[in-house]
Prior knowledge:
This protein has helices at 2-63, 74-84, 88-98, 103-110, 114-128, 133-141. The protein is elongated. It is mainly alpha-helical and 142 residues long. It folds into two domains: 1-67; 74-141, Arc Repressor Mutant, subunit A, CATH 1.10.10.10. The protein has six helices and no strands.
Amino acid sequence: MHGKKAGNKKSADSTNDGAQERLSDVLSTFATLREDGRALIDRIHGSLLEMRDLRQQIREQRTGRAPRRDGFAPARTAYLQMQFGLTARETEVALLLAQGRSNVAIAKTLGISTHTARHHTQRVLGKMKVHSRAEAGAKLRG
């Protein structure tokens, strides 16, 4: 009888090991899908930002106005520089942050490296005395 119990225990252990392995595979697959989904969302977001920029450029060409990089009035730029002590470049970055741009999108728009965009973003957040990009955006939008 002792041998039969040991056999059942081995069978239960191997079934349990198989279930744990399947669960591990499923969790790994979900993690991969989540990463792929996030990457896809980031690419879509970047494409939407590019489309927004192109649409703005087309509108400016139709109306004959000189294109502006940030889409904000010069008075707004001067206000931000005085209010928060931002440099001209930091002001450009701040205005792009207010539009919800990522560091990659900021870098692409301004023709700088992502490392430099990240550095400017950190300086802007510090000067504005906020802790997140969302908080900075909310403060900039009023």
